[in-house]
Design goal:
The protein is of the alpha/beta class. It is 37% helix and 15% strand. Bound molecules: phosphoric acid mono(formamide)ester.
Length: 305
């Protein structure tokens, strides 16, 4: 039985196969409409979510399966003090696969160690968000045609942003990838990413504060939200929340083929005037998230179509 805790749980070849399957699902949805009949997905969300939870539920329903779960810890027995380990033991009797989001780093990993069913990490604290990474990779591969030879700008909260950490981990395995980290001093990428992932693999990167200085050289601009829920004090959040606002003026400095991605939700960091720009790919990214989660469910349940 396999779980998904990190994008590194899959080899590059397995990721390519998963994305091929997602593209086939996109092209031939009818072929997959009943393949999970009789199967149940549990969504265990201890932290708020719109896209991840609902795209998992949409994915399972589009495969002909059923879903159950909870969308906040307060409505589960976690509010009475039940541990994640005990909860997953119960859920293993109710469902065939589960997606778990938790505010504590490592909680899905703890669950996977005692689970009787595949566990998917749907975001754990500031650590990892592997299915967002699969979504991002499928979006880039589908719209650019490849995952090699890319200069990727990551902008905003690079310290707490789990989507950023997961994406860096996944992309360093491809050829000729370089990063530009665009953040205020307080929200720079953690040292462990710099040392254990980038330096260890000899990946080229630079760290800057001004988006305007680098936007013209990027193939991908990955915007992120400054996350209020990860700050220890409101004053720091208020000072940093509008540090970056991508607007039409800044988009004029970017190349014609640069894609703008964002895991969403956005707050102010992308002005709505950018939404109609053909380079804005963040709503198309959401659709790819459903296809890749369908492919992931089929892979972990070992359903061959
Ligand atoms: N991208 C993402 O994780 O969105 P949600 O928090 O709405 O699930």
């Amino acid at each position: 039985m396999r779980h998904l805790m990190s994008p590194l749980d899959f080899s590059v070849e397995e990721l390519d196969k998963l994305m091929d399957l997602a593209n086939d699902i996109e092209r031939h949805p009818d072929k997959y409409a009943h393949v999970c009949e009789g199967r149940i997905l549990a969504t265990l969300f201890y932290e708020p979510s719109t896209r991840t939870r609902l795209s998992f539920e949409s994915a399972m329903l589009r495969l002909g399966g059923k879903v159950l779960g909870f969308s906040n810890a307060a409505s589960s027995s976690a509010a009475k003090g039940e541990s994640v380990s005990d909860t997953i033991r119960m859920i293993s009797c109710y469902a065939d696969i589960c997606a778990m989001r938790h505010n504590k780093e490592g909680a899905p990993m703890v669950a996977s160690q005692v689970s009787g069913i595949p566990v998917i990490n749907a975001g754990d604290g500031g650590h990892q968000h592997p299915t967002q990474t699969l979504t991002d990779m499928l979006t880039i591969r589908s719209l650019k045609g490849h995952l090699n030879h890319l200069k990727i700008g990551l902008c905003g909260d690079l310290k707490f942003g789990r989507t950023v950490h997961s994406l860096i981990n996944a992309l360093v395995r491809y050829d000729d990838i370089s990063f530009v980290f665009i953040s205020p001093e307080e929200l720079r990428i953690p040292d462990y990413i710099r040392e254990d992932v980038l330096d260890a693999k000899g990946v080229s990167y630079e760290e800057v504060e001004r988006l305007e200085d680098v936007i013209g050289n990027l193939d991908i601009l990955y915007m992120t939200r400054v996350q209020r829920e990860r700050f220890f004090n409101e004053e720091d959040y208020v000072r940093l929340k509008d540090f970056y606002i991508l607007d039409k003026k800044k988009m004029k400095l970017a190349g014609p083929d640069m894609l703008v991605l964002h895991p969403l939700p956005r707050v102010n960091e992308i002005s709505v005037e950018v939404d109609s720009d053909p380079r804005a790919a963040y709503f198309r990214q959401v659709q790819y998230g459903v296809y890749v989660r369908m492919a992931l469910i089929l892979t972990l349940l070992e359903v061959n179509v």
